[in-house]
Amino acid sequence: MKYKICVSGAAVNICGPKMEKLSLEIGKEIARQGQVLINGATTGLPAVAAKGAKMEKGVCIGISPAMGLREHIGKYRLPTENLDLIVYTGFGYTGRNLFLIRSSDAVVFVCGRIGTLNEFTSAFEDRKPIGILLGSGGTTEYFDDIIRTAKRGNGFVIYDADPKMLIKRLIKLTAEMQNNHNKKKGPKKG
Could you read off the pLDDT of 152-173 as tens digits, one per residue? Predict the structure, then answer.
């Protein structure tokens, strides 16, 4: 089964060229490992990750805050390249973020700003498998403090500085969580 792995990060690269290279590698790894990349149909690091996935012939889905293509391009000034499918929510950024997280099987976080923080808290609350690229900067540097301060457990969060290992471990965690969920549901009655 293919998993939809969301790449969440700054739509404006505040963390420099190294993060662009690492985001490109994250996108490539998602595709190399046979998964589907999903993002907020936006610019910055999520767009770089989609470019990486497409370089490896991967599938990319974008979840847009706009009501349609005209608004996506005109009002929001968001890209369409490197996306195989764009889902137009019409929910603005905040609503799009929740829809994006709920549409994902797992989420990987790279250098972020406030939208990335919003997506992190939604993913954590929804008990999604979460991968955090260590040392990526921005709001991701505060995720540990948020988890500790919230006193809600550690969730399903893994950390790695290597994009390949991060995606590999995130896929493994996602599969384990799916299998555990399916076991709890029990066999189908016929």
Answer: 777 799 999 999 999 999 999 9
Per-domain boundaries in the chain: 4-185
Count of other CB atoms within 10 angstroms of residue 59: 18
What pLDDT is attached to residue 134? 95
3 state SS for the chain:
CCCEEEEECCCCCCCCHHHHHHHHHHHHHHHHCCCEEEECCCCHHHHHHHHHHHHCCCEEEEEECCCCHHHHHHCCCCCCCCCCEEEECCCHHHHHHHHHHHCCCEEEECCECHHHHHHHHHHHHCCCCEEEECCCCEHHHHHHHHHHHHCCCCCCEEEECCHHHHHHHHHHHHHHHHHHHHHHHCCCCC
Residues 6+ apart with CB under 8 A from 23: 7, 9, 45, 46, 48, 49, 52, 110
Which residue has tokens 């974008």?
A: 62
For residue 187, what pLDDT is reported? 57
Q: Is this model's pTM higher than 0.85 or not? A: yes
Asked whether residue 190 carries a pLDDT value surpassing 80, the answer given is no
pLDDT higher than threshold 80 for residue 43: yes
CATH class of 4-185: alpha beta
